[in-house]
Amino acid sequence: MVNSAINQSILPLVDQSLKNKLGCFSFVLCFLATVSVNVIGSQQERHEAKVPNIIIIYADDLGIGDLSCYNPKCSYSTPRLDHMAAEGIRFLDAHSPSTICSPSRYGLYSGQQIYRSTGRGGGAFEGPGGPSYLKPGTLTLGDMLKQKGYHTGVFGKWHVGLTWFDKEGERLGGGFDNSLLIDYDRSTPLIDGPNARGFDASFVTPNCPTTDPLYIYIENGMVPIPADRRHLRSTLPNPGGKWRWDNDEGWMAPGYDFLEADLMFYEKTEEFIVNHLKKSPEKPFFTVFSTQIAHAPVLPAPEFVGNSGAGPRGDFVVELDTLVGRVIDLVKELGIDDETLILFNADNGAETMHVDWMREDHDHDPSAGLRGMKRDAWEGGHRVPFIARWPGRIPQGQVSDQITNTTDIFATLASIVDFTLPDDAAVDSFDMLPVMTGKQDPVKPVRPHLLTQSFRGEFQIRKGKWKYLDHQGSGGNNYERGVLKKYEIKETAPEAPGQLYDLAADPQETINLYFKKTEVRRELQALLQRLKQEGRSAPVQRKPVGFQNIAIIPFTDAQVSK
Question: Would you say the pTM of this structure is higher than 0.70?
């Protein structure tokens, strides 16, 4: 009877794995034959202990308007993410720490704004690019969860910087040509790769997988196949002409796959989870599935081409939606759904050309009517989707207006696993667990303020409905010429050195109240200065809740609208 139950639960996984080219049929059969009884027993023990597995799905360049559960005018549907939101909580006022990739990833892994590492802002790495923004001694998500007994992994785009050496032992800087100077024997195992920053297992690309050379795979700090040839843009598979835009030529490893990158990252994530349950089912796991969707160039895998009815980028987001569904299906098939927390988040708003082309060609707005896009300090640059699902622990069907930041994931997970954060760790992270579990008064904000940083590292601070930008202009893109000229909004206070907006009355940030609301502006300026001087924006002595103190809520899939 036990073996029959296991076969019924695992056979869909085998079928899906074959479909995804994982090639692990024999592995799964071995898994069934050797550990079936142990898995059932250990899963029962973990269910009673209620220790959560944790999966973070981290999307790339995905705007608040790119999911149909956020945007009623979305030109395609994202049913799996919509259903995930219906089964948990969807945040309407969630933000990335920065408006570009690398600084936001630093915020995810450290719970801190990028200026804690660099003193100001931080760019996105290209070529060898490094050293890591995650400096030695920085407590990372992986570090924290390993200390609590988790098996940790990260798969996909890394992009927080790596240290590479040439044959003389000198550290290489960025730049595409420096890729050929790497001495892999001297450079690996990487001194600041994922496995040196709290992750037991990793399969990553150093930069954007299809945009920025160095085009190689890094597995557990090692490079199985070095780059030895020049990638030419003309050889890039492409489903839609202009959507090949932003693929840089540079050095590449033989066999590097541009077209099915995210399918491969999912397969590595799946393999990690299945392997973990085979070897150490009594332990919880933590993994980050770091996609490159919907970063440029737009390269949906062949099985998704034409699926959305909204062009290549619509197909790309549908691929992401499908992969999220596969993650949820996987944990269900493995019998660990009710003990697994899944978080979905993104690193910044949609890319400039993508916003323009989707608006012009498909009547779809990735920014959902907000001003700005990737690199901009306006809301379209950093307001992003954030969804959390944990059956039986996070009540279904919640929609929250609480202001939150990607950095808050750190303190929230610390609270769940009963980890007391040191005062020098995750200094920009607030615990959102009371919101997720429905215990927080919706009128009372968890965050008294919110810090974000734009492409150039300039600061924005939010308090309630008021938002102050400590700079002129967008903080990123140039709206005075080129394709973005048509989206220019004339400045109502052109002499002002900064910007102040009332987001309740003016969510599109069109009326600069810098001179008209002097007291509010000065209050926010003083608050920004104080937070920078104090070295933290989050409170000290944060007391974790612990999973034992989170009430169990009956969860019935039938209650959630399909």
Answer: yes
